[in-house]
Amino acid sequence: MKKGYFYIALAALLLPILVRAFWFYRGTVERPEIATPDFASFTMPEAPINENTNNEVEQLGGTVIIDQAHSNQFTMPDITAFTSAIQQRGGRIEALNDSFSLDFQLKYASAFVSFSPSFPFSSFEIKSLQNFAERGD
Prior knowledge:
By secondary structure, the chain is of the alpha/beta class. It has helices at 2-24, 80-88, 102-107, 123-135; strands at 63-67, 92-96, 111-113.
C-alpha cells in the first residue's frame, strides 16, 4: 500500500513536468544561416580633394593678434597650421600676452583671435574689442 502511494505521488510530481516538456518540445534546433554582406565588394568613399590649381596665394598682409592673456587652452605649436596659413598670405602674427597692451595692439591689427579663453574679458577689453569691430578695417 505504501508502495502504491509512492508511485501515485511520483506520477503526480513527474506527470506535469513531462506533459509540459512534450507540449512545448519542437524537436531539434535548426538555426537559420545568417546572411552577411559581401564585405569584399564594398568600397570606401573618398573625401573630395580641393585642389587649388592656382599655386599663387593672394597676399593680403595685415597683423593678426592672437590672445594669450586669458589663459587660452592652446599653445602656439598647437596652431601652427593656422599661423602658417596667415604667414603664407603675408600676414604677421603677434601674441597678446597682457591685457594692458590690447588697446595699443588693436590700433594697427587687422584681426583678433581668441581660442577658448579660461579667464573672462574685462569691461575695458570688451569695449576695446567692440571699438575694433566697429572700425571694420
